[in-house]
Amino acid sequence: MSEIKESKKRAKAETAYFDDLEANGFCVVEDVLSAAEVFDIRKKLLAAARESNRRGVPTHIPSLDQNDSNIRVFNLLDLDPVFLELMGRSEAIKFVKQLIGEDFIVSNFTANIALPGAKSMHAHSDLGIVFPGPWLEPWSMNTLWCLDDIYFENGATMYLPKSHRIEKAADVPLNMLDKMLSFRAKAGSLIIMDGRLWHTSGENITQNEERAIVFGYYSAAFLRPQVNWNVLLAEETQQALSKQQRKWLGLNGTANTVSANFTEGSQ
Ligand SMILES: O=C(O)CCC(=O)C(=O)O
Q: According to the model, what pLDDT value does residue 162 have?
């Protein structure tokens, strides 16, 4: 295929993703990570989980999960540089800019590995966690890096269709769990999820299938991030960051007026 045809095809596909996001509050982009990348990142995620426990940050959080079959890994950006790379992957950032705009920050970067026996957490919208509402615009969004094939039986994330249109808590249906559907995606896919979409982790009812997903959560720069990167990132990690990464993590003096760099020195 000629280069022009190839780029027209890409532009058409991109428009379809943006249309999906607008209509459904999510889109699934397949084959973003190669099989080798999935293998490598998954291996590093398991090592990060071990290191997190070693540092005293447990991977089972009883207030989030009913049992220890959900392995939660927090502060991934401090645990392996591969996650800093994921944070800045152009395939994700183009959606962040489309949905939120140029002034965004990285609000959190975590993973959840659902092992057989994993149960669902409380249903929520990610924007609802950082902003009480009204939820009028996609001021935040999640990127779901699928490190396994994900589907109903192995606990794929479940979502409430069209719930990105819900503007206030009073309009969330009481029986939303009955109406939820599961994402379905191949390992290596990137799911883009509008921060307003209500969702929960699915139950893993398989005997021996694991479901690992890395969640990169971005929000408008005027919202406080879910975590305080100044505290969480080790000095060594912070020293190695690029100017761009520092900005996205709100590490500069102008924390939530990202486009104003007037207090920064040249780094
Ligand atoms: O693991 C999942 O499928 C969803 C996780 C989630 O929504 C969260 O950790 O806030």
A: 97
CATH number of residue 116's parent domain = 2.60.120.620
Is residue 79, in this structure, part of any structural domain at all?
yes
Residues within a 6 A CB radius of ligand 1? 112, 157, 199, 201, 213
pLDDT of residue 125: 98
**pLDDT value, residue 4:** 81
Q: What is the pLDDT of residue 8?
A: 74
Domain that includes residue 199, residue range = 31-248
- Distance between Cα 86 and ligand 1 center (Å): 18
Rg over alpha carbons for the chain, rounded to the nearest Å, is: 18
How much distance in Å is there from the Cα of 160 to the middle of ligand 1? 14
111 found inside a domain: yes
Angle between helices 90-99 and 3-24 (to 10 degrees): 50
Beta bridge partners of 185: 150
Mutate to test the pocket of ligand 1, among 65, 74, 121 (most ligand atoms within 8 A of CB): 121
Could you tell me if residue 25 is inside a domain? no
Q: Could you say which residues of the chain have pLDDT below 50?
A: 266-267
For ligand 1, pick from 69, 75, 201 the residue to mutate: most ligand atoms within 8 Å of CB: 201
175: exposed, middle or buried (C-beta count within 10 Å: 0-12, 13-18, 19+)? Answer: exposed
